Amino acid sequence: MMTHSGAKLIRIIMIVWSVTLLLVTTSVQAQDELAATLEVLSPGVQVQRVNTVNWIDVRVEAIVGVGDRIRTDATGRALITFFTDGTETELEPSTEMIIQAFSGNESQFTISIEVLIGQTIQQLNRLLDPASRYEVITPGMNLGARGTQFAIRVEPDGRSAMLVREGEVEAANEDASAAVPSGFGVRAPEDGALSDVVRASSFEELDAALDGCTAVLTTPDDVSLNVRLAPNIDAPRVGVISASDVNILIGKTESSGWYRIQYRGGFGWILSSTALVDETCVGLREFPDDQGAEDPTLYESLGDDVTLDSLLEFAGQPSPEATTSP
Known about the structure:
alpha+beta; 3 domains; 17-stranded mixed sheet; four-stranded mixed sheet; 326 residues; Jelly Rolls
């Protein structure tokens, strides 16, 4: 007759055996979805395994798979090398990402990662064949590349930015898509429109090109500045603005002294020889001297003697009446 203590021991053995079997089964399943090696470049790296809640400190290196989250603290840096021919993702400090998908071999593969916050650098050391796919998901846009190097930044509010250092990257969201070549960048807020594709070699340059730089303008006797549809004296005037009301410049022409400003919901151009741009600005976006007209339909209001039809005619756009069906 089995004693109470003997029955309790058998129950414990059965529980241990069940847990061991579960761990072994989970391990075998996970082996099919292992995707990359994780190397710690500087301390402060953690992994959260798929279907778990605890974060694990990684001291030197580890194997990571589909569904795993990787994050770095304020000083941590990590390098993820996928089981393919030299495909890498480097995580800068204060970054978090997820491996969403991985499959393939040395000749063909599919990789999908999601950058939740922080900055990463992607490196593909060879041109991908048509059957391969490398995708990076961010809150603002999805990015696809073939044989290139590009950097990503995701801010706490979800605004996403990307710079191409080599090759070309396709940026897309529900709003639009754009091919971004080497030496250029693009940006998008979460659930918002893609920005213009602008020349930039750093995120600071990208922000300056898209957001502009603070500046101080003066005119003799407080004379107002004419705001024109394009950077030339023959372009239609869309209104006037006081020099003291201009505190941000969005861009400039290469050599002719015209500056682009935000104006009444759109953009306009002013001519100035006194503009003093904040010395901390890394550089205004440059436009060619023969830059074309702005979009007149963006203006919320115009000068008293200005008509939308005249601006549309100069810009080569049809009037609303001409595009309205009878």
